[in-house]
Specification:
By secondary structure, the chain is α/β, with parallel strands linked by helices. It has one domain: Aldolase class I (TIM Barrel), CATH 3.20.20. It is about 35% helix and about 15% strand. The protein is built from eleven helices and twelve strands. Strands 1, 2, 3, 4, 5, 6, 7, 8, 9 and 12 form a ten-stranded parallel sheet that branches. A hairpin with a 2-residue loop joins strand 10 and strand 11. Helix 3 packs parallel to helix 4. The longest helix is centred in the N-terminal third of the chain and has 15 residues. The radius of gyration is 19 Å and the shape is globular.
Length: about 325
Amino acid sequence: MDTPHTTPNTTSLAPPTAAPRWTVDQVAALFDLPFNDLMYRAQTVHREHFDPNAVQRSTLLSIKTGGCPEDCGYCPQAARYHTGVDNEDILSVEQVVAAAQCAKDNGATRFCMGAAWRGPKQRDLDKVVDMITAVRGLGMETCATLGMLKDGQAEQLRDAGLDYYNHNIDTAPEFYGQIVTTRTQQDRMDTLSRVREAGMHVCCGGIVGMGETRRTRAALIVQLANMDPYPESVPINNLVQVEGTPLGDRFNGAGQLDLLEFVRTIACARITMPKAMVRLSAGRQEMPEGIQALCFLAGANSIFYGEKLLTTGNPDVERDQALFARLGLHAMAAKGA
């Protein structure tokens, strides 16, 4: 078990020696640290496990957009909301390979494929299997987010060569019903168990800025950190408000969460999950470059790279390259490179 680095006068913040690794009170105490102390601790932990100036670049492609039957309050792809997102057919293998090759040419090392459905039907999964095999043939890591999996489906994805399965738990258990009602959080956990049992890596994080309290954010981090093992990849998303969704106008405009609080969330994720890739994910388009720099200092070492995240915007490649150059960051090498 990894023991977080302990700075002077913070011994009470160490995790317990037996499961669970972390309690909500302990992570809430991390959140409450003076900002400089929290950043120091997170950066210290980060340097123990990673090159502090290397950032993994992943590209996300929507292979099936719109028409989802779920009611996630943040999602413009839900069929029940009027967001201007059309229900489209699944892409062809050729379209996906072309997009993956473009991503690789622009420096991405992991290619993620996302589909808007509750879970894949077998005919859909057969197509995704072909996509995974083809993208792996380009020498890229592969990731898929396909919703909830039934028995046997994780094994099919594994056999195709899928490296990571993304399945976020969204928010803390006590807040979950205020965001999604068409599934329970346990449904998500069941799929994550199938992924683990199949031997694949887990990519699992959540969304902040949905009206939750700091303690709720701490509870989200605790739930992730106490998974056994915790996810290898942890995307932290800041809500992107989309008109037409229940969360689109709840806060009277964007920027409802103090962005320094978002940085604190990144730091707490790094401290509690020291060996995970912590990904600065949705919401980066709206973040000033100074806040992004603080996120990297807090331990974020992965980003989504490209012009779009499923249906919402993302900083373009040239802008990211310029920011990396200004900060002295470099791309993390692909495995085996």
